[in-house]
Structure prediction request, 71 residues.
Amino acid sequence: GKDSYLNQKLAKKHAELGDLYLVHNMFREAAEEFAKASRLVPDAADYTLKLGECHLKLKNDTQAIDVFEKA
Prediction:
């Protein structure tokens, strides 16, 4: 429905911001954006995987494992 469409659009924008932060090695900020995208569209594995990647870069191994297990 309408909410689903809006969530997809919002998630895409959060992911675009996350990608921009990743390019600049701003992993904490990127993780926040990918987490928002992942919450909006939980079945979008690419957002979840990028969130896990950010946690690895931040040396948050436990959080990374939790995220990858959900993907």
